[in-house]
Design a protein that fits this description.
With 639 residues, the chain is α/β, with parallel strands linked by helices. It is built from 22 helices and 27 strands. 34% of the residues lie in helices and 18% in strands. α8 packs across α9, α14 runs parallel beside α16 and α14 packs parallel to α22. The radius of gyration is 27 Å and the shape is globular.
């Protein structure tokens, strides 16, 4: 077991002592009700407090003037909401954690559909995420009103029992819009020189210290390099950090980039701890504690950053969604039981869609109380057919609850589509999650039989009281001439290791799997062409991942043909029809990536033979891993 000499050490942020060096980053959850604490929000935060986090920072508390970018914004600006927050903070304290309120304002990123008014900003420069709404430039008096709102929010936070406040000066939101010359073209005292552009956050910090209390800790969330062409670099932010500390900031919580920055910051291609160098740069410039953030999901990585002196604390967001007991398990030496965030960004995409917080690999996230597991009152014999994510999850939870579970998998290894799914570039985190599922299954007490093809006769012989069919899906082979040629394979076969002869590869189907297969083949030196019927490639790729993957395909020289229908696979290559014209794309090998269809054969055979037959995962309909795990968890919770 690694010796964590730094991670578990207490640390001071001003007058506030934390039990260890971890911070849960502010994340809008959507679990509150117009600023009021709900049972689900309470359970969400308490689960992380019990799991050992040092400091929890709430989702954004938006000042009531024009500032909300999503429905998920929390607030304590309403007197009626105060007692709910006070009660939650007391419970968090009882678990040994501390709690800070983040105050934020979206500025030009706010949406009139949510706020009911035109967005506001330092200057009338629209957000690239909302180009149809030109923000209204704040008057000097309105800027001062906003400063007063932030200070008043901090006052209310202290009154209700929060241990600190965090000012959100990152991600391209309002504070950074004042700081950056890209978004601040004002001619008054809040624009122009760096001194003037700094005035907005500095007056907020000074106001908090003067009106709320000099000893009340203020944390500043900083994009230490906004990663925007012509924006604020690390060197510029070192100077800004020094001014902030001089004004009274007690801790700098360092992140990277704006939401609209053209540099990947949170996806799987970003290495673990890849932006810790920014925290190191800020730490060299200031005397207060500095926290590192972005793509940190592992205790050993966190310990290494702390030991190297790059930062004093570690801030994580998504890692706490995936694994609420991150610290506790590390302290107990149970590193294999940590469910590491896979950086899929599903949680981020949901937040941008104003949906409640969820995690694609932790189906309990946001539903902690609803899905809390209890021992079954009626243990039964349960047969799970299929060892993919859905099957393993269902078997594990059912066994943990006290059922007698047997899982059968026809292939030699567990994992289902996670086996080929972890071969594409930058899938190391997903490979780790597969090992996590296997490890939890082994510890659950369920019996596991691989290389076992289940038949109706075998089911009858085992005589289970409930059967869960989770035997997945099979790749679709389209009915086009030449699809049975020896140089034609499915993407699934390629990802499982089947070699491709020759240099030129045509991939029919440019969805997520097709694009990742193209990236893999191009990185192996193949000349790749993607053929897609739809008007654009990667139509099913999530927003946070799509632009990164497509940019990588461009860098690798992958050719793309949209609005193109494959007619035939010939000796020469693939005959396609595009805009009414036929042409042959030369190819030495052709890869089919046109989707999957559920394997329903066994389920159909078993219908009518069993009192309790359940079909989940891809066997019930092709779906993503988040839906498969959620479905398996809900079923096992009720069995």
């Amino acid at each position: 077991m690694p010796h964590f000499t730094k991670l578990f050490e207490p640390i001071q942020i001003g007058t506030l002592e934390l039990r260890n060096r971890t911070i849960m980053a502010a994340m809008d959850t959507g679990l509150e009700n117009e600023g009021f604490v709900t049972d689900s929000l309470r359970a969400f935060y308490l689960e992380r407090a019990r799991g050992g986090v040092g400091l929890i920072i709430t989702g954004s508390m938006n000042p009531p003037r024009w500032g909300r970018a999503c429905h998920a914004s929390e607030a304590i600006y309403f007197d009626d909401a105060m007692e709910g927050w006070a009660a939650l903070i007391r419970e968090v304290h009882a678990e040994g954690a501390r709690m800070a309120a983040q105050f934020s304002h979206a500025g030009r990123h706010a949406r009139s559909g949510i706020t009911g008014v035109q967005p506001i900003a330092p200057s009338p420069i629209p957000s690239p995420h909302n180009v149809t709404e030109v923000p209204r430039e704040l008057s000097t008096e309105e800027v001062r009103l906003l400063i007063a709102d932030f200070v008043d929010g901090a006052r209310r936070a202290r009154e209700v029992g929060f241990d600190a406040v965090e000012l959100h000066g990152a991600a391209g939101f309002l504070v950074t819009q004042f700081l950056s010359p890209l978004t601040n073209q004002r001619a008054d005292e809040f624009g122009g020189s760096l001194e003037n552009r700094l005035r907005f956050p500095l007056e907020i910090v000074r106001g908090i210290k003067e009106q709320v209390g000099a000893s009340f800790p203020v944390i500043y969330r900083m994009s230490a390099d906004d990663l925007m062409p012509g924006g604020l670099s690390l060197e510029a932010n070192k100077v800004i950090a020094q001014h902030l500390v001089a004004a009274g900031v007690d801790c700098i919580n360092v992140t990277a980039g704006w939401h609209e920055a053209p540099v990947p910051q949170v996806v799987t291609s970003v290495p673990r701890g890849g932006f810790a160098y920014l925290a190191s740069g800020i730490k060299q410039a200031v005397s207060v504690p500095v926290s590192a953030c972005n793509r940190i999901n592992d205790p050993e990585v966190a310990e290494r950053i702390l030991r190297s002196g790059q930062s004093d604390l570690i801030t994580m967001g998504r890692a706490w969604l995936a694994e609420p007991e991150w610290i506790r398990k590390a302290q107990e030496g149970r590193l294999g039981d940590i469910r590491h965030c896979v950086a899929c960004c599903d949680c981020l995409d949901r937040a941008f869609q104003n949906l409640e917080v969820r995690c694609s690999i932790n189906p309990f996230c946001g539903r902690e109380e609803e899905l809390r597991l209890h021992p079954t009152k009626r243990p039964r014999r349960i047969l799970v057919i299929g060892g993919g994510p859905a099957g393993m999850q269902a078997a594990t939870i059912a066994a943990q609850r006290g059922h007698d579970v047997t899982l059968c998998e026809r292939s030699p290894q567990l994992g289902g589509e996670l086996v080929p799914g972890t071969v594409a570039p930058h899938k190391e985190e997903l490979a780790g999650f597969r090992q996590y599922l296997i490890g939890q299954l082994e510890k659950s007490g369920a019996r596991v039989q691989v290389e076992t093809e289940v038949t109706p006769a075998m089911v009858a012989e085992l005589h289970p009281e409930a059967v869960v069919v989770a035997n997945g899906a099979q790749p679709i082979v389209p009915r086009i001439p030449g699809a049975d040629r020896p140089n034609v394979v499915t993407a699934d076969q390629v990802l499982r290791g089947k070699p491709l002869e020759g240099k030129r590869v045509v991939i029919i189907g440019a969805g997520w799997v097709g694009c990742e297969t193209a990236e893999l083949m191009a990185m192996r030196g193949k000349q790749v062409t993607l053929v897609e019927m739809l008007p654009r490639i990667g139509a099913d790729i999530s927003p946070s991942n799509r632009w990164v993957l497509l940019d990588q395909l461009r860098v690798l020289g992958v050719a793309t043909l949209t609005k193109s229908k494959a007619l035939e696979i010939t000796d020469a290559g693939v005959l396609i029809e595009r805009e009414g014209q036929q042409q042959t794309i030369e190819a030495d090998a052709t890869v089919l990536s046109v989707g999957y269809r559920p394997d329903t054969h066994l389920a159909e055979q078993l219908k009518g033979q069993l009192d309790e037959l359940y079909v989940i995962g891809d066997a019930a309909g092709v779906r993503r891993i988040n839906a498969a795990l959620r479905e398996a968890t809900e079923l096992a919770h009720e069995l």
